[in-house]
């Protein structure tokens, strides 16, 4: 039977050893972006206040403010996320060491590359698939990734603006890049961004939504087939139905690792899902690593 591990922002934040720091949680993300003196720093004060109060609400307001032109925002967000790399004591490295490359399917809601880089430090390449891939770490990213760039050989898009293009601004195949290529793209491109969901309600994807939706499909399929699922560092957000509906419906045992502040929302989700075999384990991500490994046996 399949075993699945879902990781959220709390996992990257709680991975402890990362350079130049650990990625911030959503509450600190806006100020981190603003400190880079790019587009975010130039936004009007009322919009900044919305972001600081609730990043998702701020992103929805920004979409209206920019008339749907989110490419630069997404590109600068991707650039920021691509800069993080794991140190030798990073908790993702410890998790992969304990799980190995083949025992489980990992899934992350984050845009950063800490898992991929951790796998590489241990000699594993990453495959963005749920299919058994000997020698590869299987990793799904249902909200996209800073390194998921549209692959359009022979096509150059520059000095262009995309506004309210419907479901997609660009629909093209995706070629995952390495960290250095990703950072270079973020710096040199002036019109295109990677396939990452907008950090807003519903997580809309404007670049290559077909590719990201396939990641979501594989996530749902893996959870449906799973015997055990561990969740760590992921805030329960039922409106992200592509994530939480499969978890509500799976027959698998679900082990949710969170802080005391997460206990109430977990209980509400468990009750609403009528899911009896879901269990709350109070733990931060670093402390949860050995327990996740034990549960995945």
Descriptive notes:
The chain has 297 residues and is α/β, with parallel strands linked by helices. The protein contains 12 helices and 11 strands. The chain has a 7-stranded parallel β-sheet, sandwiched between helices. Strands 2-3 form a two-stranded antiparallel ribbon. Strands 7-8 form a two-stranded antiparallel sheet. The N and C termini lie close together (11 Å).
Domain count: 1
Indicate the overall shape.
globular
Task: State the helicity in percent bands.
Answer: 40-55%
Summing up helix and strand content along with how strands pair, one would put the structural category as alpha/beta
Give the tally of β-strands: 11
Q: Which helices and strands, and how do they pair?
A:
Layout: E1 2-7, H1 9-13, E2 18-19, H2 26-34, H3 45-53, H4 55-65, H5 71-82, E3 85-86, H6 91-99, E4 105-108, H7 114-121, E5 125-127, E6 136-140, E7 148-150, E8 174-176, H8 179-188, H9 209-225, E9 226-232, H10 241-249, E10 253-258, H11 263-273, E11 278-282, H12 285-295
Parallel strand pairs: 1-4, 1-9, 4-6, 5-6, 9-10, 10-11
Antiparallel strand pairs: 2-3, 7-8
Helix pairs in contact: 2-3, 3-4, 5-8, 6-12, 9-10
